[in-house]
Design brief:
The protein contains ten helices and six strands; from the N terminus they run βαββαβαβααβααααα. It is α/β, with parallel strands linked by helices. It has two domains: 162 residues, 3-Layer(aba) Sandwich (Rossmann fold); 65 residues, Helix Hairpins. Strands 2-3-1-4-5-6 form a six-stranded mixed β-sheet, sandwiched between helices. α3 links the parallel β4 and β5. α7 crosses α8 and α7 packs antiparallel against α10. The structure holds guanosine-5'-triphosphate (GTP) and magnesium ion. This is Iron transporter FeoB. InterPro entries: FeoB_Cyto, FeoB_GTPase, G_FEOB_dom, P-loop_NTPase. GO terms for molecular function: ferrous iron transmembrane transporter activity; GTP binding.
Length: 243
Amino acid sequence: MSHYTVAFAGNPNTGKSTLFNLLTGMRQHTGNWAGKTVITAEGEFSHNGHKYQAVDLPGTYSLYSNSADEEAARDYIIFEQPDVTLVVLDATSLERNLNLALQVLEITGRAVVCINLIDEARRLGIEINLKAISKRLGVPVVAISARNKIGISALLDQVERVATGAFTAKPLHITYNDEIEKGIAQLLPMVEQTIGSKYPARWIALRLLDGDDSLLTSLKGNIGRKTMSGTKEVISHGVTAYD
Ligand SMILES: Nc1nc2c(ncn2[C@@H]2O[C@H](COP(=O)(O)OP(=O)(O)OP(=O)(O)O)[C@@H](O)[C@H]2O)c(=O)[nH]1
Ligand SMILES: [Mg+2]
């Protein structure tokens, strides 16, 4: 029996813990206020003979370094490298929620986008073109209602396709303005040389250009001081070049 890890990422209050509890039979605290999941919870579920370790990450609006929650979610996705990152979105505020999905896709293509609260969207007359969103994002997109247990089996089928490698992702990558792209192009070889090919070098270069010190600290802690010894130089080079 294969064993995969699935991390649940998403904005606060999008139903991550509700879905996590439904799948794992656990009782992570849920409710309609933000910031309940502060400690990452883990549980297990099976689907089609595959076993999954589910990891419920804290709700975050981004994967920058604005809070301990964002750092925890970011570090988990970058360093633990789950087989699948399940990005749980609120169907009634997709525009805001898709922002996090784009950030996850900059880090990994091993992702499934799960549009939750589809019951609420239907009630409000919101129509969602899943095919169009999936084509644009380059990863599977499934609509569910975790609370009403709608769409769960279809969701798990897509998680399986990504976990087993049956689905080849073409994750959407944002092209930034010329100045930023130039900065990334300069930093990228140095970042790759310093941290190797195991980590999302383009995304890391982008964050370093933005002066993300917390990410640098995490890189040092997780990859080791020795490997990271050249990085400060890389950053000062990048920052000096683009100040
Ligand atoms: N209408 C509806 N409500 C839902 C659905 N799924 C979850 N909810 C509700 O949304 C609220 C938030 O759910 P949680 O599971 O706590 O959300 P979360 O994403 O874990 O929140 P954080 O831990 O703060 O990030 C709860 O009141 C849930 O009952 C759904 O499919 N439909
Ligand atoms: Mg939660």
